[in-house]
Input
Amino acid sequence: MKIVVATPDMADQMLKIYAPFITGSVVTFETKLPDNDVFRKRINSCLKRFPWLAAVQDGKVLGYAYAAAYRERDAYQWAVECSVYIDADAKKAGIATRLYNALFDLLKLQGIYKVYAVITTPNPESVGFHERFGFKWFATYTQVGFKSGQWCDVGWWQLLLKETGTDTPAPIRPFSALSAETIQSVLTRYTN
Output
């Protein structure tokens, strides 16, 4: 299995992974399955600023993870949200762990300080996974979303990649500014 930078032509495979989370769960608050064109645009847009990674084996996408801006204001540039989705047949194989390890290593190279995970609760599997990574819960928005005939709570967890201090931080480096060699050296660490 290889960890690679996602490409727009992987959109259809990623949508097959993502679809059950939209149509059969409250894991995501997205309620309509986006088409391939929309998903391709999401990947392209993300890759300008942040990593979007895929786990691939024999040409098949087994899972993907990406980072997105926490908020659009400049003062928030050192914080991101993260997401990971794994094919139902590939769960419990350590794929999500590899994807997150690679993602967080790349985010550190960009100068990111904090990563937020937003989890619809209850979801003990996702909470446990994130807490094993060192994420700490800090807030719950109660009954903030309505999906599948129910009001849902959303918990927020944070992971500190770098300690904040009193110095002015350097602006983050866009993912697109990292060299191909740098990116590949990170991804190779998590490929078997």
In short: The chain has five helices and seven strands. The two ends are 6 Å apart (CA to CA).
